[in-house]
Amino acid sequence: MPQQSPLDVPEGDPFGPHNLPYGVFSTAGAAGAAGDEPERRRIGVRIGAHVLDAGAAAAALGSPYAALLGQSSLNPLLAAGRTAWRDVRRALTAWVTDPGHRETVEAHLFPLDAVTLHLPYEVADYVDFYASEHHATNVGRIFRPDGEALTPNWKHLPIGYHGRSGTVVVSGTDVVRPCGQRKAPSDPAPVFGPSVKLDIEAEVGFVVGTPSEHGRPVPLADFEDHVFGLFLLNDWSARDIQAWEYVPLGPFLGKSFATSVSAWVTPLEALEAARVAPPARDFPLLPYLDDAEADRPGGFDLRITVSINGQEVAQPPFATMYWTAAQQLAHMTVNGASLRTGDVYGSGTVSGPEVGQRGSLLELTWNGRDAIELSDGKRTFLEDGDTVTLTAWAPGPQGTRVGLGEVTGRIVGSR
Ligand code: MN
């Protein structure tokens, strides 16, 4: 028997050669001996349980993409545009599948558990949306029990806000419990202290590759020319701080303390088989948002799982999102605001129609009224030491599954 190669990924592995997500890694501290200089960051492509040093493999194979892949960040690849994205992916696919390249490629593989993963791109602007009708309805019922659950604008435009790009952190980064003001309706005055309603929002993030011209909107049809890929995103939210501060200008310190993203970006090209139509619209949308005649469906069938301390608490279905990523891109540029390489936008909390499909503890516990049972006790909101992990998969070609890289984070006490 020939020795098993790391490139012989088991059938059914969601990180097979049909997937090939991109990240940035280093090997210091794991593979290196004590006292080593920290090793440089480089672009990695995940294949099974290994990471391919893409730049080193490209150089060894004499590829024209050696310079683009030999970087410490994905930004130059993101900026290279859609044709380059397609060509690089074709090359990588050949490298990990063609037996003629095997020996060369194997020399540049590292076991996943022997590398450190880093934030793979420099985040430019960060925007977060509010695109699940089920989530928006639940939140409306909780925060505005006497009013309409959905605001009058909700089905006319994708509601969003600008967040804090500097506190977008890679999966695995601890999250410090934020302090801030809160004031329950029954409190006579606001109090200051650690948030007592720290929550998650299970979301999907999108990263922009190709910039756009200031003053020129990006139409729906140009989505794939600008957006490189997607990933899981956890929009940590302090509900008590948020509830007191958000009127009238929206989310601020209840959100800006941390946003976690997966270390792996899945290129949109890997998700062709996961395209689905969004839910039916109640009425025709304004032309710049109207996707009824689009060439292809704008939704993505991503099956998300939310776990706390290893225990599953929800399975939010991304296919149920009312607004698509293409509509969100069209809306956030319709006023002429330009895109930059590295812009990230979040879908908004993903919640389906069922209780077990809700992507936040706010909804799962109905703002703390109904505690959920974990094996280590009841939870309404997060406690110090809790670890939250989002995982997901999507239908791939020929019955395969495309895995999304997890996003995980542990809550540590306020400082
Ligand atoms: Mn959010």
From TrEMBL:
Pfam families for the chain: FAA_hydrolase, FAA_hydrolase_N
Residue span(s) of domain Fumarylacetoacetase N-terminal: 18-120
Keywords from the named record: Calcium, Hydrolase, Magnesium, Metal-binding, Phenylalanine catabolism, Tyrosine catabolism
One record GO biological process: L-phenylalanine catabolic process
Chain positions recorded as Ca(2+) binding sites: 128, 201, 203, 235
Pathway entry: Amino-acid degradation; L-phenylalanine degradation; acetoacetate and fumarate from L-phenylalanine: step 6/6
Enzyme Commission number(s) of this protein: 3.7.1.2
Keyword Repeat: no
Protein known as: fumarylacetoacetase
Native source organism of the sequence: Streptomyces roseus
